[in-house]
Amino acid sequence: MENAYSVTGKVETMSDYKIEIKNLYKIFGPNDKSMVDRVANGMGKQELLDHHKHVLGLRDVNIGISANSINVIMGLSGSGKSTLIRCINRLEEHQEGTIIVDGTELSENTKNIEAIRAEVGMVFQQFNLFPHLSILDNCTLAPIWVKKMPKKEAEELALKHLERVQILDQAQKYPGQLSGGQQQRVAIARALCMEPKIMLFDEPTSALDPEMIKEVLDVMVNLAKQGMTMIVVTHEMGFAKEVADQMIFMDEGMIVEKADTKEFFANPKSDRTKLFLSQIL
Q1: Hey, which residues does 17 pair with through a beta bridge?
Q2: pLDDT digit string, tens, across residues 238-278
């Protein structure tokens, strides 16, 4: 049985995980399910594409995410990072394997999907704010329509989280009036308004100008220090070294290496990880 380190340094067993992923496969293509066995039996990414016109997303992924831990996923473009976190809240449907979030298995059961999405917030590369709505209305939309929250209560909650991400003074403006960094902070506040237990970040700074990256990372660092369970796809090394409990390196749809942060950077085991780190550090 695998172990993982929580923010307290305690070793936890699989039953203690907030998110547990076992033997996960994701193939993109018209006959995706029929290709899983071939991939499981060793068919490579290139052969799958060249001879069968399918794209490998994930291959036999196993990982545990501890409560209140910060987990950073790294890897080259196309390695499966975004696909993995999108599978966690069913934005992508996996063909084989299991995903269990806080005791609920992600399946075709609509109630299970809704229960998991209620606990999992997500921030994307693009901000995806509604341009015709004010910042405040962007943040209150989901609580009012999904949670049936009274408007006044939703507005109070939104203002609290806008303050939390240090952008309260922009509440009555529209997305087009804000910088990219400000819009991404609004996107984080919007996700927090659903009061999730887990936050997923898919390269949240990749679309930002360099001078705007720090303001978004500062918000994420504060969330981490407040105990939010987080999975972050990023290449921001400083952020990873400062707050991550677990580092995960992916290549060709597989987890090549996972380790606590200090060990990952100081003593990587895989040659692929060593090469990757040598190119970005």
Answers
A1: 66
A2: 999 999 999 999 999 999 999 999 999 999 999 999 999 99
pTM: 0.89
pLDDT tens digit string along 108-157?
999 999 999 989 999 998 889 999 999 999 999 999 998 999 999 999 99
Angle at the Cα of 111 from the Cα atoms of 110 and 112, rounded to 5 degrees: 90
Q: In what order do the strands lie in the sheet with 17-28?
A: 55-66, 17-28, 96-101, 104-105
Burial class of residue 13 (count of CB atoms within 10 Å of its CB; 0-12, 13-18, 19+): exposed
